[in-house]
Amino acid sequence: MNKSNTINLSGIHKNYGKVNALQDISLDIKSGELFGLIGPDGAGKTTLFRILTTLLLPDSGKASVCGLDVVRDYREIRRRVGYMPGRFSLYQDLTVEENLTFFATVFNTTIEENYDLIRDIYIQIEPFKTRKAGKLSGGMKQKLALSCALIHRPEVLFLDEPTTGVDPVSRVEFWDMLDRLKQQGITILVSTPYMDEASRCDRIALMRTGKCLSVDTPAGIRSTFSRLLLAVRSASMYRLLEDLRAFPGTYSCYAFGDAHHLTLKEESDAGVSSVVSGLETYLQAKGYTDVSIESIKPTIEDCFMALQPEA
Amino acid sequence: MKQFISFLRKEFYHIFRDKRTMLILLAMPVILIVLFGYAITTEIKSVQVAVLDQSRDEATTRIIDRIGASEYFELYKVLDSYEEGEALFRQGKIRLLLVFPPRYASSSDAPVQLLADATDPNEATQITSYATAIISQWKMERQSEMNAVTAQSPGGNGQLSAGITPVVHLLYNPLMKGAYNFVPGVMGLILMLICALMTSVGIVKEKEIGTMEVLLVSPMKPIYIILAKAAPYLLLSLVNIITILALSYFLLDVPIAGSLTLLIAISILYALVALCLGLLISTIANTQQAAMLVSAVVLMLPVMLLSGMVFPIENMPVILQWLSNIVPAKWYIIAVKDVMIKGLSAGAIWKEVSVLAFMVVVLIVVSVKRFKIRLE
């Protein structure tokens, strides 16, 4: 077992009845890394978290956290990790301060002892410390939950979809907090369904339906995108999507916010320019007058869409 | 230990901040006692009686007067015909009809006919036995009067009655008050409800809102989680025991004949059984609703029906009698009646105590074994 790896997973399988929640997952997460599990709902992220936090037993395969086996040494692992489940798992009828004090004592520590670690986060919710946790806004709940998960200075922090249901500003703030925690030497495993957050991680694993599609740095994943990516815009976007998909040279086309991302079957640089001009004529013939086509860099989401599981 | 105390404090916050829980905990004992004490009573009071008096002599008049004067009966009407009585039964105006044969006073052993509405068989049995008691008491008194008269005139030919007259003495509950029976029953019901229902719902709630996940991924031992969840309810059930005892003593005049300490000790033992049942339910149910449903069906119904609280166990089919042995409330109610009403000492209830203690041990072992240190 490699010492510089905080988390090792090899050949992990997990089924719920007939549903394959995880299929042959192997991952190594280095010490001090901010590692992201990226994938839509049902990708198996939560199951993976629960196996690593010793809450579920894998059907087969081996997993270790801090060099400790998740099945055999579950007690010691529970002492060393911090876990923030996907649901807002705090006591709604307890105040902010009572929640934090409670979790501190459960982990055999006090707020004062590790205050420096949570100060940056807790200071933002401290003005509301006598408020019931159930009455906090989504962003504040999330900060409180993070404070509670951090209060015992864990070696590894597991955050299961911490930004789901949180407003965009709070999400950015949250990732800034994770950066600061990483500087303190805490290994962080975080999952998110938002592809745009992937670039904030050191490395990411793209997951879908229980399979790990690709593991690399965000830049590394983007560099595997081999085709030319075009962003196409027009006034009538919906009709445009259908027409782009009907274009004979189209490889794939998806709606991405304000533009359609289009890849072409033609991969050679020389061939591409002629196909693009062919596309312009095609769209003009269809009656579009305001079409803009530009070449863009692929995002993680483009890469994710390109990584269709081989059916 | 600090962990445990902090956990306990948290549990009390949960209980005190939830108005519904507080209402159940504090108001229920009072409501049940008052309800059983005053509204739901199996005692016979003011039953409407009609009389068909075919002799209309001094004897029947005195018997009718006595019936009317008793608190059990109220004279509805003196009838002229049998048919009239049948009509009154059909209309539900009367529950009992007394028919005196002609020349009742002159024949010493003439039968009196009692007709009772037996739609409620228990009530009918009680009514007729009360009426019989009044009549036979009157007969006895007249007999002794006549004996006294014959004794005063020596050589008189008064006949001595050869009949055997039973002298009834009701032990432990001379006034035959229903409260003596239902107070132990209500205690069994409330302790079961608070300890089992509240504990199971409390634990399942943590599963439901997801905090159980966080607690499991903590250094806290599962056994402490269980203990901390159960302890507050044990404490609250003690408060309830005392409330019930005080209410029944001061409001319903039920005496506490035996030792109060012993009574509280058995109650704690029974509360432990209920707590363990609650733990067991919490390991089975995954939602609060399921926990409540299981508690109601598996615990409340047997306490109501199979514990002897409402229906006497001796009258049940053998299989139900056998089944009633695994209902903890049955043993608890027997023990409470022995101590509270009969005033017996600890030696008399060793059997009930050991059955309950055995149940605690088995349930603790099973539920701690079943308590999951993981999510599945």
What does it look like?
The complex is a heterodimer of chains A (311) and B (376). The mean pLDDT of chain A is 88. Chain A has a six-stranded mixed sheet, sandwiched between helices. In chain A, strands 2-1-4-5 form a four-stranded antiparallel sheet, covered by helices on one side. In chain A, strands 12-13-11-14 form a four-stranded antiparallel sheet, with helices on one face. By secondary structure, chain A is of the alpha/beta class. Chain A has helices spanning 45-52, 74-80, 96-106, 115-125, 138-150, 168-183, 218-223, 237-246, 269-285, 300-306; strands at 5-16, 19-30, 34-38, 60-65, 68-69, 81-84, 156-159, 187-192, 203-208, 211-216, 229-233, 250-256, 259-264, 292-295. Chain A has ten helices and 14 strands. In chain A, strand 4 and strand 5 (68-69) form a beta hairpin. In chain A, 42% of the residues are buried. Chain A has two domains: 5-219, P-loop containing nucleotide triphosphate hydrolases (Rossmann fold, 3-Layer(aba) Sandwich); 229-306, Alpha-Beta Plaits (2-Layer Sandwich), CATH 3.30.70. Chain B is of the alpha/beta class and 376 residues long. Chain B contains 13 helices and four strands. Chain B has a four-stranded mixed sheet, with helices on both faces. In chain B, strand 1, helix 3 (58-69) and strand 2 form a beta-alpha-beta unit. The longest helix of chain B has 32 residues, at 121-152. The radius of gyration of chain B is 28 Å and the shape is elongated. The model of chain B is unreliable at 155-161 (pLDDT under 50). At the A-B interface, helix 2, strand 6 and helix 3 of A face helix 1 and helix 7 of B.
- Helicity range of chain A: 25-40%
Instruction: Describe the largest sheet of chain B.
Output: 4 strands, mixed
Question: Helix/strand/pairing class of chain A, anyone?
Answer: alpha/beta
The fraction of residues in strands of chain A falls at 25-35%
* CATH class descriptor name of the largest domain in chain A: Alpha Beta
Overall mean confidence score, pLDDT of chain A: 88
Strand content of chain B: 5-15%
- Give unreliable regions of chain A as ranges: none
Order of helices and strands of chain B: HHEHEHEEHHHHHHHHH
- Please give the CATH architecture of the largest domain in chain A: 3-Layer(aba) Sandwich
Overall shape of chain B: elongated
SS elements, strand count of chain B: 4
Assembly annotation: heterodimer
Give the H and E element order of chain A.
EEEHEEHEHHHEHEEEHEHEEHEH
Looking across the biggest beta sheet of chain A, what order are the strands in?
Answer: 6-7-8-3-9-10
> Tally of extended strands of chain A?
14
Provide the CATH superfamily of the largest domain in chain A.
P-loop containing nucleotide triphosphate hydrolases
Number of helices of chain A: 10
Name the chain pair with the biggest interface and residue counts per chain. A-B, 33 and 24 residues
Tally of individual helices of chain B:
13
